[in-house]
Structure formats: structure tokens, C-alpha cells
Write a structure and sequence with these properties.
The structure holds two protein chains of two kinds. By secondary structure, chain A is α+β, with helices and mostly antiparallel strands. Chain A has three domains: 198 residues, Aldehyde ferredoxin oxidoreductase, N-terminal domain (Aldehyde Ferredoxin Oxidoreductase,  A, domain 1), CATH 3.60.9.10; 191 residues, Aldehyde Ferredoxin Oxidoreductase Protein, subunit A, domain 2; 184 residues, Aldehyde Ferredoxin Oxidoreductase Protein, subunit A, domain 3, CATH 1.10.599.10. In chain A, a hairpin with a 2-residue loop joins β7 and β8. The longest helix of chain A has 22 residues. Chain A is globular and about 60 Å long. The two termini of chain A are 35 Å apart. Helices cover 30% and strands 29% of the residues of chain B. Chain B is α+β, with helices and mostly antiparallel strands. Classes of the chains: A alpha+beta, B alpha+beta. The complex binds iron/sulfur cluster. The site of iron/sulfur cluster has 12 residues of chain A, from loops.
């Protein structure tokens, strides 16, 4: 198949179209893989994240926009202003379908516009337009305004940044058709470049190599997904989305509570998926599924009473629910749903925001900061109004509190000092998400060496370790270290491969990444990947992003693949994991060995050659 | 309302897919010295009318077992009044 990307130079106001070399397309496939290929080659070494030379890649995978179930996940990637290294994030929804219908597989954005600008794409027509009138508008307002302006025979799809990114806060996300993408501040790089939004309208059919075979494979996948008790009709995802696991995670002692001080929240029932289902989600009937999705994990929360009455928003999903809920000691569902809404409209990363506010609450309770530092806000755990106030200030970067929230937890800890770095819960500067690693060592390893900093999906080991998705055997048991490094490495490559295809990771709970997804990829691309070639796509992407870190950060290596002090030295005080800390080093050794990396975690020349990444070698050796 | 164990019973709580089938908890009678594996057999019998037998036995083989708040192996002893939490498959992200 031949695929075209757009290259946008905002400084020159120039837009070019480029056909992707088929060999490159086969090797890197899409999303993360292809984004890493372009960014590694096109961003000059060691330029600041906030610079004209840094670039943002928005990329699709080969299954996006096809008949395949849940084929919606696109990628946004850049050099992160939060961590200084690689970052890529994903959004679902309808935006990427439309980009492919306009005839494009991706967009690479560089330069800086003179004034606020948006990119308008309608099939072959691609233009930069003045966004001065929408600069400053929140994400939902921007989407509404641009839809109104460009509605014609079809509804335009809008991707935008919010006020937090315009003001160069560091914990920001892009919002594409009400779905968030990009941890690590991708949106702020667009804010720096003064690119407010991308509007897309497309009328073309997404072409695939073998439509009959693709339909056949997609049908088989649909049937499996429907029968599965998690992904199927009235399954747990349809009822409660990812939030269905709150009670299970709490039972395993892994629900981050009050800035990861413990893994057991006494109000877990109150904030559980079951409780949301039976109240704000009306029995799970208020779903907002992505196109062609069987799981249908997304729910619409409608707040009908109380001080936040009238707010209607998608979510909260598990991550935001926990980080804005138990991690801040908040048990009120309306407050949590409102907090998620505020993150969306300001374009804040809900995980990072909940993590940073939880940290600031602990600092406040310990007396390391006072009302002087919070502009008078009584920033105590469980104070619902304080959580909302902190998000409003963080989203608009107002006052001292707003600045502390917007800079993320690592920088906030550096400003506050007084030993607070010990409980600043981040890896490589990216805030930790909603699993307590002391209760699931595989998650600890995953966080420690993830290529964007602490990430819950690189890979997600928690289900196998603590939620019964794998048998009660080594290496899946939560406190085992034997064999864990190799297992986590293999799983991470599989996750990366699935990411590259463009299907939502959540369908991998109901179908197999190789048995079911590979035939669909082959039917769509005509590339006839063998199983080995297919899985190498993920491994190649993971090695390329690893090399990106080595190229960008002069002292990068093993010391960066670590966990917060609290996870390594402070035993959990309660729950099944009581007394545990993460024994990271032996797992890390195994991981490096299984990866073909040296003792400092650097991909060896032999490994890079094996993965056809020869062009990387002289950049990091 | 939380169940209270009668003499000679253990409380079995469910998380994940089994909670959808069996509800939040059931009481399982035990006699004298028993092991978790005995209770799992009883749970299998109780739930069999509600779901596919093979799927149920796979779920029980995969579920994580927490006895009185601590992970426990199948062969751990269990006595009346104990609480066994069965964390059955669930997926999030
Ligand atoms: S599982 Fe959820 S996020 Fe994934 S495609 Fe379906 S609705 Fe979208």
C-alpha cells in the first residue's frame, strides 16, 4: 500500500506531501514505530523541546479507518518538555478515521508560526489559517467553534490544545474530538509552535490491500470479542469501562491513595466502577463508544445535582478516576467527574494533575508548604473544593498554586525541596499512574524502564499479576522476580506492536495480538508479515525510542530506569502487599539481558543491526 | 449489607467477572480442617448452573486468592469465619 504524510513547516508556512517509502512503512508500520522513525531522523540532536527545531508527529496505523473493530488509536509524539526525552501518547475516537478519509497517514509539524494558527485539511486542500480568535478558548469551546465554522456535507473533526498548553504548562494533553492524547506535554510543544488546532474533513475511502480477507478476519475478531465476558455485550467494559477494576486493584492493595502513601482506600466502594455505573452512568447505558468498537468502554457522566450539577462529560476512566480520586483522598463521584471535566477543557493530563496535586497535598499536610504557597487554598487530602481549585489554577496557570501544579511533580519537588523529592512519584519526570508498584513488581519494572517515563501501558502487567488474567504461576505472581524481566520485555514489545497497528489496546483483552490481529494487518497492508517480522515492529520501535533517549540526554542510562524513593525504600503499610518494597535491580538486569542491551541499558550494536536500525549506531556510539 | 459468617462457614467475596455472575459475596460451609482448594471446589459447584463449566474452572484457576487480607496459595488452611477474596479476571488500563 502507498501512504502519504503531510509535512508542515510553520515558520515558512509551507506544507508538502510525501509518500512513505514502502520499505520504511513495512519496518515501522505506523503510530509509534513510524513516529519514532521520522522524529529520530528529523529532530536535530539535543535541541530544546521548546524550539522551532523540535517536531511533533501525529501518526496513524494501517488498521485505522478500516472495518476492523476498535481501529481508531492514533499517536502523537515529540521530544517532551516535561522529561527531556521521548514521549508518545494515543487517543481513540473519530479524529484519525477522518484524517485517513482525507487521504493522509500522518502529519509532521515543525517550525513556529508567527501568530496563532490552525491547520485546515479537506481532502487535497491543506492550509494554515489564522487562529487568533480562538487562542485562549478552552478545548471544548474550540471544538464547537471550529465545527460550526467548517460544517458542510460532513462534520469536521477537530484536534486542539487547551489554555494550559498555550501557556506552556508541562502536564498537558491534546484533545481530539473529546478524547485526550499525549502524556509528557506534547500539547505544549504545539502551544509553543502556536498551532492551536487541526481540523479535518475527508471524503475518501480508506484503501486496503485485500478487502475480502480483511472483512473475514475482522468478522472472526468481532465474534471472539462479543463472546468474551470482559469485552463482550454487557461485559465489564460495556458496563463500567476500565473503571471496572477499581475494587480488584484495591483488594490487591494497589490503589494509589493519598499520594501513594498506601494502596488501600477506605472509600473504594464509593468510587468503584460499579458505583459510577449505578449512578452517573445510568446502569452503563450512557456509552460513547468509538467507531466499530465492541468493548465500548467510554461512558458519559451526567451530574444532575449538587454544586457541579449540569456538567456532562465522558469518563472518568480508571486512570483519571483514581489519580483525581483516591490519590487525592477524594471519594465524591461528582467531584471526580468534575475534576476530569476540568482536565479535558483546560487540556491537562489527568494522571499528572492528580499525581502532582496529591503530592502537593502531602507537602501541605506535612507543613512543607503553607497557605502562603497555595494562595490561601486549604490543600488537604479529601478537600474536594481544594482539588477543583487546584485544577482551575493549574489549567490556567494562575498564582503560585497554579504554577506548582502546571510544572509537574518533579519540578514542584525541586522547588519545595525539604526532602519532598522522596515522595515525588515520577519516573524520568513523568508522573506515575494509578497502580502501586510495591503491590505488583512487574508494574514497578514497567514504570522504571518505560520509554516515556512512568507509564501503565508499557506494558500493562497488572492484569496478569493481580487480576487473574494469567494463571497463578511464576512469572505472573505479583511478588515474584524470577523470569519477570524477560516476560515484561516480551509483553512490552507485543504492546508496542499492537500500538503500531492502530487498534485500541483494550481489544487485546478479548483477541490475540498475533493469532487475530496479524491476519488483519496482513490483509490491510499486503505486507505478509511473518509472526517474527510482525513482533519485531514493536521491538524495533522500543529500541529506537530507547536510542532517542541516549542521543538526547548526555548521562542517560541505568540510573534513569528507576522508581521514586518511596517505592524502593518505604514499605507499604497495609493490604496484601503490606511490608513490600520493589526489588528493582535483579528484574532490571533480566530485562536488559532479554533486550540485548548492555549493563547500562544501552542497545548493543548487534541488537541495533539485528533490528535494521543501523542508522542509529553512529548517533549513540 | 455485609454478610456475617455463621458457625462453620467462610465468606467468599468476588471481584471481577465472577462478581457479575455470583454477586459480591456468598457463604460457603466448611467442615473441620479445610484448604482453599476445597472451598474453590464448592464455589465451582455453586456457580456451575450460572455459567459455562469450562470457563468457570479456567477463571478459578486464574483468579488471585486473598485470605483474610493476604495472598494465599491453594493449599492454605482455611477455617470458619475466614474471608476469602477471589479476584477473578478483569481488565483495565
Ligand atoms: S475500548 Fe474504549 S477506547 Fe478502545 S476503541 Fe472501544 S470505546 Fe474506544
Amino acid at each position: 500500500m502507498s501512504e502519504v504524510i503531510l509535512k508542515v513547516d510553520l515558520t515558512k508556512g509551507a506544507i508538502t506531501k510525501e509518500t512513505i517509502d514502502p520499505n520504511i512503512l513495512k519496518k515501522f508500520m505506523g503510530n509509534k514505530g513510524l513516529a519514532a522513525y521520522y522524529l529520530f531522523n528529523e529532530i536535530p540532536p539535543r535541541v530544546p523541546a521548546f524550539s522551532a527545531e523540535n517536531k511533533v508527529a501525529i501518526m496513524c496505523g494501517p488498521l485505522i479507518g478500516t472495518v476492523v473493530p476498535s481501529s481508531v488509536k492514533f499517536c502523537v509524539a515529540t521530544k517532551s518538555p516535561l522529561t527531556g526525552g521521548w514521549t508518545d501518547g494515543y487517543a481513540s475516537g473519530t479524529w484519525a478515521d477522518m484524517l485517513r478519509a482525507a487521504g493522509y497517514y500522518g502529519i509532521i509539524i515543525g517550525g513556529i508560526a508567527e501568530k496563532p494558527t490552525y491547520l485546515y485539511i479537506e481532502d487535497d486542500k491543506v492550509e494554515l489559517r489564522d487562529a487568533s480568535d480562538i487562542w485562549g478558548a478552552n478545548t471544548y469551546e474550540t471544538i464547537r467553534l471550529l465545527k460550526e465554522r467548517h460544517r458542510s456535507d460532513i462534520e469536521p473533526r477537530v484536534l486542539t490544545i487547551g489554555p494550559a498548553a498555550e501557556k506552556l504548562g508541562l502536564i498537558t494533553t491534546i484533545i481530539a474530538e473529546y478524547r485526550a492524547a499525549g502524556r509528557g506535554g506534547v500539547a505544549s510543544v504545539l502551544g509553543f509552535k502556536k498551532l492551536k488546532a487541526i481540523v479535518v474533513k475527508g471524503h475518501k475511502e480508506v484503501k486496503v490491500a485485500n478487502p475480502e480477507k480483511l472483512e473475514e478476519a475482522a468478522k472472526a475478531a468481532r465474534e471472539k470479542l462479543i463472546k468474551n465476558p470482559i469485552t463482550g455485550a454487557r461485559g465489564r467494559h460495556q458496563q463500567m469501562g476500565t473503571s471496572n477494576i477499581v475494587l480488584g486493584v484495591n483488594a490487591a492493595g494497589a490503589l494509589p491513595t493519598r499520594n501513594f502513601q498506601t494502596g488501600v482506600f477506605e472509600y473504594a466502594e464509593e468510587i468503584s466502577g460499579e458505583s459510577f455505573r449505578d449512578t452517573l452512568w445510568m446502569g452503563g447505558s450512557r456509552r460513547r463508544p468509538c467507531p466499530r468498537c465492541i468493548n465500548q468502554c467510554t461512558h458519559l457522566a451526567v451530574i444532575e445535582s449538587g454544586k457541579w450539577a449540569g456538567i456532562v462529560d465522558e469518563g472518568p476512566d480508571y486512570e483519571n478516576l483514581v489519580m483525581l480520586g483516591s490519590n487525592c483522598g477524594v471519594a465524591d463521584k461528582n467531584t471526580i467527574a468534575t475534576a476530569e471535566f476540568l482536565c479535558d477543557v483546560y487540556g491537562l493530563d489527568g494522571i499528572s494533575a492528580g499525581n502532582t496535586i496529591g503530592f502537593l497535598m502531602e507537602c501541605f499536610e506535612k507543613g512543607l508548604i503553607t497557605k502562603e504557597d497555595t494562595d490561601g487554598v486549604n490543600l488537604r487530602f479529601g478537600n474536594e473544593d481544594a482539588l477543583i481549585e487546584a485544577l482551575i489554577r493549574g489549567g490556567t496557570i494562575t498564582g503560585k498554586l497554579g504554577k506548582l501544579v502546571a510544572m509537574g511533580v518533579r519540578r514542584a519537588a525541586d522547588v519545595i525541596g525539604q526532602g519532598s523529592q522522596k515522595f515525588a512519584m515520577h519516573v524520568k519526570g513523568l508522573e506515575m499512574p494509578a497502580y502501586e508498584p510495591r503491590a505488583a513488581f512487574g508494574m514497578g519494572l514497567a514504570y522504571a524502564r518505560s520509554d516515556r517515563g512512568a507509564c501503565h501501558l508499557r506494558p500493562w502487567t497488572f492484569g496478569a499479576e493481580c487480576l487473574g488474567l494469567a494463571p497463578r504461576e511464576v512469572p505472573y505472581l505479583p511478588y515474584d522476580t524470577q523470569g519477570k524481566g524477560a516476560w515484561v520485555k516480551t509483553l512490552n514489545d507485543v504492546f508496542a506492536t499492537v500500538h503500531c497497528t492502530g487498534v485500541c489496546l483494550f481489544i487485546a483483552f478479548g483477541i490475540d495480538a498475533v493469532e487475530d490481529i496479524l491476519p488483519m494487518v496482513n490483509a490491510a497492508t499486503g505486507f505478509n508479515y511473518t509472526t517474527e517480522e510482525y513482533l519485531k515492529v514493536g521491538e524495533r520501535a522500543n529500541n529506537l525510542t530507547r536510542a532517542f533517549w541516549f542521543r538526547e540526554v548526555s548521562d542517560f542510562g541505568r540510573d534513569y530506569d528507576t522508581l521514586p524513593w518511596r517505592c524502593l525504600h518505604e514499605p507499604l503499610p497495609s493490604g496484601p502487599a503490606k511490608g513490600k518494597t520493589v526489588p528493582l535491580e535483579p528484574m532490571l538486569n533480566d530485562y536488559y539481558k532479554a533486550s540485548g542491551w548492555d549493563a547500562n541499558g544501552k542497545p548493543t550494536k548487534a541488537k541495533l543491526q539485528e533490528l535494521s536500525l543501523d542508522f542509529v549506531i553512529d548517533k549513540i556510539y | 449489607m455485609e454478610a456475617v459468617a455463621e458457625k462453620g462457614e467462610v465468606i467468599v467475596k468476588f471481584m471481577g467477572v465472577l462478581r457479575d455472575t455470583a454477586g459480591p459475596e456468598i457463604m460457603v460451609p466448611i467442615k473441620g480442617k479445610s484448604r482453599i482448594s476445597d472451598v474453590l471446589q464448592d464455589v465451582q459447584k455453586k456457580l456451575e448452573p450460572l455459567m459455562d463449566k469450562n470457563l468457570l474452572s479456567k477463571i478459578l484457576k486464574y483468579s488471585r486468592l486473598v485470605l483474610n487480607g493476604v495472598y494465599a496459595p491453594d493449599e492454605a488452611e482455611i477455617k470458619p469465619g475466614d474471608v476469602l477474596m477471589i479476584i477473578s479476571p478483569a481488565a483495565g488500563g
